[in-house]
Every structure is written in structure tokens, then in C-alpha cells.
Design a protein that fits this description.
Purple Acid Phosphatase, chain A, domain 2, 6 helices, 25% helix, binds fe (ii) ion
Length: 264
């Protein structure tokens, strides 16, 4: 079975890039499941019903989060109402979002989970302990597991890859918005990449207009960020998993420039 996972879909540019590319990607890769990281859908911060619903209609099956998932106060009830929005499970129980979500298509089953790292990130519980507790109680032996590990430190993500090798079918890193070229199948069958990257405007500093970030960084004076709309790219991976063994058999990194169809 085949899954395509799109790294942090950023703002209007990211949504439009995904929208205009989805048919072509589906034709080319023929995925059974399509997952996105959606923590930056709404202007780079959080997600809303208006920004997510059109993507679900395109065929997105589930959405993972991260530290920005709850940035839009007006969307908390919407997140609570959607079982296929998966939150980092090592955040407090009160934070809206599913702890896990299993998608079933015929005989095929994929369970999606999300964890945040602790290094250079907002406070959260140990991903190691929380994952262990969840995994011990997870009874569905027929389901492959896709973990979006949302972290700043490449070392922490790499360590977590070794920690869960053989227990999840894929660990796909997100959060830095910078794609890494280290995709591989780990020895016990987990597909791994430190960061999938960002689907969105790369003529930017991780999604925000570059001149604004340069002004902030060079002067130290706070300034309001604005999402960029230039240099659009798809950053994603395609992962093949064997539903019998729940091991991954192949991971392919996708990095494509997409020229906007019209001015955003
Ligand atoms: Fe992000
Ligand atoms: Fe993040």
C-alpha cells in the first residue's frame, strides 16, 4: 500500500500549490492514502475550517499537527469535531485533536499519529514515554502506523527513528520546513526521513517574507510577519508499506517546483 505525505503546507501559497498539483501527483504515484501536515495552513499559523475543507475534498485523508496547530482560537471547536485531525499526543489531554486516527480503505489500514520533540520546542511531555504507553495499548495488529515526528533538533528526530524502528511503519519528520536528503528504510523496517520539508513558498525564510525576517534578525526589533507567495514547491514523500508485515519497503523523496497558475 502506498501513502503520500506532504510536509507542512504553508499558507495560501501552500494550499494553492497542493490544489493545482494534486491531480498530477495522484496520477503519477497512485497513492492509497494522502496525509498532510496542516499546522501552517492558515497564513502560516494554525488551521481553519475554510483552509482545510477544500483540501479534504481533493482527497486528503488525515491531517497532522504540531506546535502551531492551535494558533487560531476560532478553530478549536472545529478541530475537536474532526476525527482526522491528529494532534501531537504528548500535549495535554485538553488540547483539541485526535490522539490517533485510523483510515480504512478496503483491506488496507493506516493509523496516523503525531508527536512533538522537546529540544528547542515549547514544553511537552517526553515523546519516548508517551509513545511507549500508547503503543502498548494499541491493539490493532492489522494497521500500519505513520508517525509525524514534529521537531526542531535533527539529532532528536534521528534518535527517535532508532527508538521506534520496527514499531511504526514510517517516521516522517516535520517542523523545520527544510527538506533533508536522508530518506532510508531503517534495519527493522521503518521508513525514515529527518524532515519532509515545506509545501509552500520557498522564496522566503521558512514560509515568511524574507525581507521582514531579515529586518527582524538584523535589527532585533520585533515586526509583524507576513506569509510569502513566491518560490512554490511541493515537499513530500511517497512511502510503500507491506500490510502483512507492516514494514516499509520503499521511501521516495519528492521536491518539485510549481509555478503559480495565477497571481496569488
Ligand atoms: Fe510548520
Ligand atoms: Fe512546527
Amino acid at each position: 500500500m502506498r501513502t503520500i505525505f506532504f510536509g507542512d503546507v504553508f499558507g495560501k501559497a501552500g494550499r494553492q500549490t497542493l490544489t493545482q498539483s494534486m491531480d498530477r501527483i495522484i496520477k503519477e504515484y497512485q497513492p492509497d492514502f494522502i496525509i498532510i501536515n496542516g499546522e501552517n495552513l492558515a497564513d502560516g499559523k494554525g488551521l481553519t475550517e475554510k483552509t482545510l475543507k477544500p483540501l479534504l475534498r481533493l482527497g486528503v485523508d488525515a491531517v497532522t499537527g504540531g506546535n502551531h496547530l492551535w494558533d487560531r482560537a476560532e478553530s478549536l471547536e472545529f478541530i475537536r469535531s474532526m476525527p482526522n485531525i491528529v494532534k501531537p499526543m504528548n500535549y495535554p489531554a485538553q488540547a483539541p485533536g485526535s490522539v490517533y486516527h485510523t483510515i480504512e480503505k478496503g483491506e488496507l489500514k493506516l493509523t496516523v499519529i503525531n508527536l512533538c520533540g522537546q529540544v528547542y520546542m515549547p514544553p511537552c511531555d517526553s515523546p519516548f514515554n508517551v509513545f511507549d504507553r500508547w503503543y502498548e495499548g494499541f491493539a490493532d495488529q492489522d494497521s500500519c502506523i505513520l508517525l509525524d515526528f514534529h521537531a526542531e533538533s535533527t539529532a532528536e528526530t534521528r534518535a527517535f527513528g532508532w527508538y521506534v524502528d520496527g514499531r511504526v511503519s514510517a517516521l516522517l519528520g516535520t517542523h523545520t520546513h527544510i527538506q533533508t536528503a536522508d530518506e532510508e528504510i531503517l534495519p527493522s523496517g521503518t521508513a525514515y526521513i529527518t524532515d519532509v520539508g515545506m509545501t509552500g513558498p520557498h522564496d522566503s525564510v521558512i514560509g515568511m517574507r524574507k525581507h521582514i525576517i531579515l529586518e527582524k534578525m538584523s535589527t532585533g526589533v520585533p515586526i509583524r510577519y507576513e506569509a510569502s507567495d513566491r518560490g512554490n514547491q511541493i515537499n513530500a514523500v511517497c512511502v510503500d508499506m507491506d500490510p502483512q508485515t507492516r514494514r516499509a519497503t520503499k521511501i521516495t523523496r519528492i521536491r518539485q517546483y510549481v509555478s503559480p497558475r495565477e497571481k496569488i
